[in-house]
What does this fold into?
Amino acid sequence: MKKYYLPLPDREMETVILANGEFPSHSVPLAILNNSKYLVCCDGAIDNLIKTGRIPDAIAGDCDSLSKENAVRFKDIIHRNPDQETNDLTKSVQFCIEQGRKNICILGATGKREDHTIANVSLLWEYMKEVNVEMITDYGVFVAIDSDSVFESKEGQQVSLFSIDNKPITLKHVKFPVNDHVFTNWWQATLNEATGNEFLVETSGRTIVYRAF
It folds into this structure.
C-alpha cells in the first residue's frame, strides 16, 4: 500500500513544474521551488519566475505566452510543443516523461481562473498513469490515487476527497469515517478532518485526495 507524505520546506524535489497560475507565496511551495533539482517552467510562468532571480532548466509549452525578448534569451532551453489539444501544463509533464523524470511536483497550477484550476486538478488523474505526481498550492496538496493508500497527516488537518468513478470508498482515521460508500458528486466527500498522524483511503476508483496546510 503506497504512503503519501506531507510536503516539507526542506524537501528536495527531483523535478518541479511551475505552471502559470498564481505564483507561490506560502513558505512550503516557495521552498520546494527554490530547492528543486530540476525546474521546468510553463512558458507563461517565466515572467514571474525571473523576477525572483531564478532561471529554469527548461521551458515547455506552445510558447504563445512567451515574449519575444524571453524567446531570444532562453532559446537554448525552450521546448516548443504546438499541440492545441493539450495545455501547457500537460506539455510540461509530457516533456518530463520524455526525459525519464518520474517524480514530479507541480506548483502554481491554481488561482487566477477557476476553470483553469479545475482542469489542472482533474489532469492529475491523467498524469498518474505514467508518473508519481503531486500538486502543491499555497493552501495544501493534491494527489490522485486509484488504489488503497495511506496519507501522512496531522490531527485536525482538513481533508477532502473528489471521486470521479462510481466506485466504493472507505475512509478511516478521520472525524467522519466512510465505509464502502459510492459518491455521486464531487462535493460529497469534502470537508473531513484527520484524527491522527495518518489516514487510510480504500478504493479502486480514480480519486483526488486533498490535505490542507
About this structure: Helices lie at 27-35, 46-51, 68-73, 88-98, 114-122, 124-127. DSSP finds six helices and 15 strands in the chain. The first strand starts at residue 2 and ends at 4. The mean pLDDT is 93.
